[in-house]
């Protein structure tokens, strides 16, 4: 379909410079737009990464059965923490502070040690230990910086919200990281949105995690899924493309006429641009999501040929295509809501879930690498919290075989642009309980990502909205290349 | 600052010889909250050079010329044993420290003007609004309405030229949307066009204010501020966590109250304490939805926190929540004040009342871990004081587990700087019918009617049945009659217990006995039923739970139940089932006291905050930009005297909103055009580039609700029915009700609402307005825009327009409330080509395209 707008591809600066008159909330009203006419934003020159693929696994992935195996759990299996030579984790001064409940009562503490449910090996040149449930991903470990010392403060699933916004659910709401990035940097591609969410977007429990809050709807995620259309992104059935193009022409002419009448209204220009972008998005988005344009070999790389890995493989391949085309922040849910929440049957549940994501994730890393996208694309893999070293033995459960929520220590990893590969950063104690070496709260992960994108988290501030010290986080400089 | 310094330098007067101004900026940012006008920890102030020279209780903090020996510098560097300052946040950067050091090194010279911060208690918003006389203005256009006298005076002072009058069509469209959220009709337009006199305009305003749509548009506006939300939490699991089902009655209360012209002070009181103020008034009780909206089933503390935060923001324009973890950094609100405010809400609990004509709502039950709490759809939900003895604990770090027990339970109170007199709370004795709703006549009546109906139905069953089943039907009739008898016994016992009619003990015994008899008859009936028929196929749940019950087992069980009921029959008891739950006889009176204090005439904040919201709804930019923060860190008013005058006028008018709306929209300022001549424009922009002085009327985009409602109004499909249960968000494209009636909550809102910046249910003291491609897509591709476009086209078609020109003319009038200009007519004519089916399609496309016309969604 021909573009109804003569200007075709607009440069970002051109696109934004049309906005005028102190009207702050228009279009891709990001920092750059705000600073146009004053000084160009200096930190961008220092950006190591241009785009992010942030993979989230919901429910709480066990650090112990993924990237932080602890042989001591096998040695002391069945004993309580007190019966080991190690300090009682419950008595740690940080225990209370890092296990705050949304519910008005404390969570049960499970002191009896549950052995590792899967074996592990040293993998790659770096020899980082990875669980046997990640055979493919284990082979990519030399590209990864594994951070084993994350902690959060919510011991229930609102920790997911916390991972995206940096705040405990009982505290004042904050915009999610993706919205801040959108606010701070805007888009790299005039035809595509800057913040895309791929996953279970119809689930309200997930949606609240990607809420722009006081930054406003313009900084919200556009929700996409391979095979599903963009919201309002498909022309009405009874309107042919030719007729819709004609209709767009008329709308554009109405805008131009209105501009003559109302030279003071900056909205008209902004709206004209937004119509232009909308029209281009209508074709660009389906194109970006069209995985058939990829070779069969690439599709296999992501496991799309296998029913177990196909859904998540498609999501990650779509994310790569979107990142390639300049989508700044791709948040990919690689699970159903709460999928990893293995209170029981951890062996079976985690084993099954690992099998769904192992190949697609490895495929993504290999694909990015061979395309040279590691130069400007950052991959983050995370979950909301880990799982308890103790066995979740509840009264009603005759045969407990799972682990409870564990905010005190869990693992995330990063790979790609600006990241040192094959390193482990931070550590939990011998039992995999507390993050003891270089402990990092979730906003440290935010700060690291923002830093790699060339943004100082402290610059992300809206007048009249108080951000706290904890919101800014600290950059994990040790994992930066 | 730099420029004026330069001027002073040229004149040979060094304004700031030592560079204190720069140093002060750093101190202001990091040190003033504890060492400024608000607080003087260790007796130290750092907000002027002379204060710094004075030092602290412990002596000098800086020695001129010797930064390295100055404790001030040592502290910010964290040297030696001195505590690092500031104690919170990042340490000062080396360059910042150097700025401080450099000023000390150069001798700590004071700048020309060396004054500390103002006394916080004298902050403009913390003292009473002043009764100001509107300035005298000679210009006859601007001297009638007091608002204009303030606006015009400000413009004259700054030398900006006001815009001319808006044309009648623009004005009518503006005022109609502003007051009703809907476009004017063609008839209204024509009538006003014929007579656009001030008298006619005033009549229009009165008509709009009298329309029920006024309450809908302004109701939504206030519900933004009061954070309306339908229940949410875990919608997927059908589990209520936040807010509450049936809270829509609060929305209807809001709309109705506005339409009835209920004064604002009364509304505030009803929302905070309707249950104490009018415990039996079903028109008032839903107002406590304001309190119930913050309910959070999983954690009571969260409810309390939201109550403090949003009572502060909504009514007082104070950010009290900042004092949750520490004393407020800008305003004189201490952490203790925070908990004193919380104490007002401490006794809260939820209550489900019956509503006439509706089935009794499910009884309230407190949260049990991992038990779902499903929504229900009858009754009146409200709050009440349950835990009169509930202590309010002071805790630290924002974590309720860190109780400071030594402080004891905190009593309710308001911040000292706002308390004019001693704060008193008087418990409220509740009427019996509120304590025990079972005394309310409608409930008794409905219970009696239900029994009578059951008896009649059972009698009919006996009449109709023959043979074997007859026995069963007769047993049913016996049970129904006994149930009725038992109800009468219970009612008599209630009369005795609550109203002193008869011997309470004896009648309670009778009621108890009647219930036991009823139980026995019911058990016998169940036995008959078991004998009569094989048990019903087990339900899904029963299947999961256990093996299906055989008929023999069922009979055996029923026999056991009969035996048990017989045994019970002989037990002496005076306990019988009340018709409804029984609640405490006294309410703490805390919320009522708080509400009364909020709306007391000498509260400096309440009226100002309210009129600022009213102003925002008409003039787009509020007088105080930070609508929820009138504190020292908030914005200053653009027109302080006007704000004060409006606040005083509001109270003088008995807090009635309609007179204020009328005053605002009949002002000359409101009737200004949104454009200005090129010459005046250039001149005005130099002085006031952001139009703070309102030299043109600020245009705005329609709110989300109005975008959708206008589409439906223009197509003629808008369903104007008022009120009722919230409509599911998925119905937004297909149910033509006004947008305010759709569900709107923390987990979702209608697509159009989300796309066009509908209220954020977390916090919406001011909406944001964005322009984004999704809006264009919604108007281009949504089923709503497409289908209403077709309906719009057919609507014009039905008027039999003579030709395309006439069609276009009518379409513009309906959609944009004005005629097309020559260029638009030409463009439209070119678009509407062909004939027959082709033309019909083109007209449909054209009508839909008008929804994307910039003037459709913009108010000028």
Helix content of chain A: 25-40%
Helix and strand sequence of chain A: HHEHEEHEHHEHEHHHHEHEEEEEEEEHH
Helix content of chain B: 40-55%
Q: Supply Rg of chain A.
A: 24 Å
Could you say which overall geometry of chain A the principal axes of the C-alpha atoms support? globular
CATH superfamily of chain A, by name, is: Alkaline Phosphatase, subunit A
Per the principal axes of the C-alpha atoms, what is the gross shape of chain B? Answer: globular
Query: Which structural class should the secondary elements of chain A be placed in?
Result: alpha/beta
Q: Using DSSP, what is the number of strands of chain B?
A: 10
Write down the Rg of chain B.
34 Å
- The count of domains of chain A is 1
Number of distinct helices of chain A: 14
List the total number of helices of chain B. Answer: 34
Low-confidence stretches of chain B: 1-5
Overall mean pLDDT of chain A stands at 87
Mean pLDDT of chain B: 93
Low-confidence segments of chain A, given as residue ranges, are: 1-43
Q: Main sheet of chain B: which strands, in order across?
A: 1-2
Strand content of chain B: under 5%
Descriptive report:
The complex is a heterodimer of chains A (481) and B (860). Chain A is α/β, with parallel strands linked by helices and 481 residues long. Chain A has a single domain (47-228, 292-479), classed as Alkaline Phosphatase, subunit A (3-Layer(aba) Sandwich), CATH 3.40.720.10. Helix content of chain A is 31%, strand content 13%. Chain A is built from 14 helices and 15 strands. In chain A, the strands form 4 sheets. In chain A, strands 1, 4, 5, 6, 7, 8, 11, 12 and 15 form a 9-stranded mixed beta sheet that branches. Chain A has a two-stranded antiparallel sheet with strand order 2-3. In chain A, β13 and β14 (435-437) form a beta hairpin. The radius of gyration of chain A is 24 Å and the shape is globular. Mean pLDDT of chain A is 87; it is low at 1-43. Chain B has 860 residues and is mainly α. Among the domains of chain B are: 2-117, no CATH class; 243-250 and 263-427 and 588-594, no CATH class; 437-569; 783-859. In chain B, the strands form 5 sheets. Chain B has a two-stranded antiparallel sheet with strand order 1-2. In chain B, strands 3-4 form a two-stranded antiparallel ribbon. Chain B has a two-stranded antiparallel ribbon with strand order 5-6. In chain B, β1 and β2 (239-242) form a beta hairpin. In chain B, α2 packs across α5 (94-105), α19 runs antiparallel to α21 (551-569) and α23 (606-619) crosses α25. The radius of gyration of chain B is 34 Å and the shape is globular. The chains are: A alpha/beta (481), B mainly alpha (860). Chains A and B meet through α7, α8 and α9 of A and α14, α28, α29, α32 and α33 of B.
């Amino acid at each position: 379909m021909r573009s109804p707008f003569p200007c075709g591809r607009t440069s970002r600066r051109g696109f934004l410079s049309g906005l005028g008159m102190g009207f702050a909330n228009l279009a891709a009203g990001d920092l750059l737009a705000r600073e146009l006419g004053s000084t160009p934003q200096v930190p961008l020159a220092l950006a190591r990464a241009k785009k992010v693929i942030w993979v989230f696994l919901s429910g709480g992935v066990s650090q112990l059965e993924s990237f932080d195996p602890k042989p001591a759990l096998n040695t002391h299996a069945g004993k309580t923490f007190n019966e080991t030579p190690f300090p009682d984790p419950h008595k740690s001064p940080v225990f209370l502070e890092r296990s705050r409940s949304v519910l008005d009562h404390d969570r049960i503490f499970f002191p009896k040690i549950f052995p590792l449910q899967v074996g592990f090996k040293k993998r790659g040149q770096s020899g980082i230990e990875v669980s046997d449930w990640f055979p493919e991903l284990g082979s990519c470990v030399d590209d990864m910086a594994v951070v084993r010392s994350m902690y959060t403060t919510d011991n229930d699933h609102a920790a997911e919200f916390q991972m995206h916004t940096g705040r405990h659910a009982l505290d004042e709401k904050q915009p999610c990281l993706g919205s801040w990035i959108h606010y701070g940097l805007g888009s790299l591609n005039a035809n595509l949105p800057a913040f895309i969410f791929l996953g279970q977007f119809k689930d309200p429990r997930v949606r609240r995690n990607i809420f722009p809050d006081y930054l406003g709807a313009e900084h919200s995620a556009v929700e996409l899924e391979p095979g599903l259309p963009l919201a309002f992104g498909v022309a009405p059935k009874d309107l042919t493309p030719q007729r819709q193009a004609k209709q767009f022409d008329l709308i554009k002419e109405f805008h131009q006429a209105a501009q003559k009448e109302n030279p003071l209204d900056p909205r008209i220009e902004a709206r004209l641009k937004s119509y232009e972008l909308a029209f281009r998005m209508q074709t660009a988005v389906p194109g970006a999501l069209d995985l058939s344009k990829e070779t069969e070999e690439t599709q296999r790389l992501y496991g799309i040929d296998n029913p177990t890995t196909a859904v998540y493989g498609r999501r990650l391949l779509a994310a790569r295509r979107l990142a390639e085309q300049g989508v700044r922040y791709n948040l990919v849910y690689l699970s159903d809501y709460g999928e990893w929440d293995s209170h029981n049957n951890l062996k079976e549940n985690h084993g099954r879930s690992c099998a769904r994501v192992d190949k697609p994730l490895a495929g993504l890393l290999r694909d990015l690498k061979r395309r040279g996208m590691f130069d400007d694309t950052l991959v983050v893999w995370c979950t909301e919290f880990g799982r308890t070293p103790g066995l979740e033995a509840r009264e009603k459960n005759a045969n407990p075989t799972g682990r409870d929520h564990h905010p005190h220590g869990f693992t995330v990893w990063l790979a790609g642009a600006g990241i040192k590969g094959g390193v482990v950063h931070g550590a939990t104690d011998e039992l995999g309980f507390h993050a003891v070496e270089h402990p990092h709260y979730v906003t440290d992960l935010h700060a690291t990502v923002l830093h790699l994108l060339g943004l100082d988290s402290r610059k992300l501030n809206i007048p009249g909205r108080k951000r706290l010290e904890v919101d800014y986080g600290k950059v994990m400089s040790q994992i930066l290349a | 600052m730099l420029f004026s310094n330069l001027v002073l330098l040229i004149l040979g007067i060094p304004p700031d010889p030592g560079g204190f101004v720069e140093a002060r900026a750093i101190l202001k940012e990091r040190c003033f909250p504890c060492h400024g006008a608000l607080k003087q920890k260790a007796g130290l102030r750092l907000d002027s050079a002379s204060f710094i020279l004075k030092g602290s209780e412990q002596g000098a903090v800086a020695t001129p010329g010797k930064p390295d020996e100055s404790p001030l510098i040592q502290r910010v560097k964290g040297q030696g044993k001195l505590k690092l300052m500031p104690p919170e946040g990042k340490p000062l950067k080396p360059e910042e420290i150097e700025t401080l050091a450099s000023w000390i090194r150069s001798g700590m010279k004071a700048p020309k003007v060396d004054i500390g911060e103002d006394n916080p208690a004298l902050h403009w918003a913390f003292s009473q609004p002043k009764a100001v006389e509107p300035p005298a203005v000679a210009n006859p256009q601007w001297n009638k309405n007091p608002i204009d006298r303030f606006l015009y005076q400000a413009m004259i002072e700054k030398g900006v030229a006001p815009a001319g009058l808006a044309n009648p069509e623009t004005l009518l469209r503006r005022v109609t949307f502003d007051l009703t959220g809907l476009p004017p009709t063609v008839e209204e337009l024509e009538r006003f066009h014929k007579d656009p006199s001030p008298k006619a305009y005033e009549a229009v305003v009165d008509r709009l204010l009298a329309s029920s749509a006024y309450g809908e548009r302004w109701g939504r506006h206030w519900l933004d501020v009061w954070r309306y939300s339908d229940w949410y939490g875990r919608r997927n699991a059908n589990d209520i966590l936040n807010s509450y089902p049936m809270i829509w009655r609060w929305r209807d209360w809001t709309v109705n109250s506005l339409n009835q012209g209920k004064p604002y002070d009364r509304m505030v009181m009803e929302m905070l304490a309707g249950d104490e103020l009018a415990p039996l008034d079903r028109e008032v009780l839903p107002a406590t939805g304001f309190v119930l909206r913050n309910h959070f089933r999983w954690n009571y503390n969260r409810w309390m926190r939201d109550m403090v935060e949003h009572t502060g923001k909504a009514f007082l324009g104070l950010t009290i929540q900042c004092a949750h973890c520490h004393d407020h950094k800008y305003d004189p609100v201490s952490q203790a004040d925070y908990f004193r405010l919380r104490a007002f809400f401490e006794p809260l609990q939820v209550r489900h009342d019956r509503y006439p004509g509706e089935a009794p709502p499910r009884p309230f039950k407190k949260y049990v871990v991992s038990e779902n709490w499903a929504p229900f759809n009858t009754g009146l939900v409200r709050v009440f004081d349950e835990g009169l003895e509930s202590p309010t604990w002071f805790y630290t770090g924002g974590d309720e587990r860190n109780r400071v027990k030594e402080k004891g339970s905190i009593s309710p109170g308001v911040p000292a700087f706002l308390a004019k007199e001693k704060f008193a709370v008087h418990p409220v004795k509740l009427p019996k019918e509120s304590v025990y709703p079972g005394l309310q006549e409608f409930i008794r009546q409905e219970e009696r009617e239900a029994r009578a109906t059951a008896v009649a139905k059972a009698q009919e069953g006996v009449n109709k049945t023959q043979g074997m089943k007859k026995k069963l039907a007769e047993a049913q009739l016996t049970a129904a009659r006994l149930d009725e008898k038992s109800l009468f016994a219970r009612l008599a016992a209630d009369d005795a217990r609550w109203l002193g009619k008869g011997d309470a003990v004896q009648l309670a015994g009778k009621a108890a006995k009647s219930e036991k008899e009823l139980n026995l008859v019911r058990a016998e009936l169940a036995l008959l039923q078991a004998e009569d028929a094989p048990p019903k196929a087990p339900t899904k749940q029963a299947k999961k739970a256990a093996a299906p019950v055989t008929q023999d087992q069922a009979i055996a069980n029923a026999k056991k139940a009969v035996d048990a009921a017989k045994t019970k029959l002989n037990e002496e008891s005076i306990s019988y089932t009340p018709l409804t739950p029984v609640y405490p006889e006294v309410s703490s009176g805390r919320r009522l006291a708080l509400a009364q204090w909020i709306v007391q005439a000498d509260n400096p904040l309440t009226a100002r905050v309210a009129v600022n919201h009213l102003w925002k709804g008409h003039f787009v930019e509020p007088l105080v930009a930070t609508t929820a923060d009138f504190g020292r860190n908030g914005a200053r008013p653009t027109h302080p005297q006007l704000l004060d005058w409006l606040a005083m006028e509001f109270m003088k008018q008995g807090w009635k909103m309609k007179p204020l709306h009328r005053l605002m929209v009949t002002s000359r300022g409101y009737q200004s055009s949104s454009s200005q001549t090129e010459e005046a424009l250039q001149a005005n922009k130099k002085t006031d580039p952001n139009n703070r002085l309102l030299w043109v009327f600020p245009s705005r985009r329609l709110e989300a609700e109005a975008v959708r409602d206008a589409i439906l109004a223009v197509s003629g499909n808008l369903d104007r029915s008022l009120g009722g249960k919230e409509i599911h968000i998925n119905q937004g494209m297909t149910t033509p009700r006004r947008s305010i009636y759709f569900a709107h909550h923390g987990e979702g809102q209608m697509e159009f609402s989300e796309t066009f910046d509908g209220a954020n249910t977390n916090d919406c003291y001011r909406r944001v307005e964005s322009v984004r491609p999704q809006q264009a897509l919604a108007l281009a591709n949504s089923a709503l825009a497409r289908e209403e476009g077709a309906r719009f086209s057919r609507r014009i078609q039905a008027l039999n327009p003579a030709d395309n020109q006439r069609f276009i003319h009518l379409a513009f009038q309906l959609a944009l409330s004005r005629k097309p200009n020559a260029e638009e007519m030409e463009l439209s004519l070119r678009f509407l080509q062909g004939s027959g089916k082709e033309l019909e399609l083109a007209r449909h496309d054209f009508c839909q395209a008008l929804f994307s016309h910039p003037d459709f969604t913009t108010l000028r």
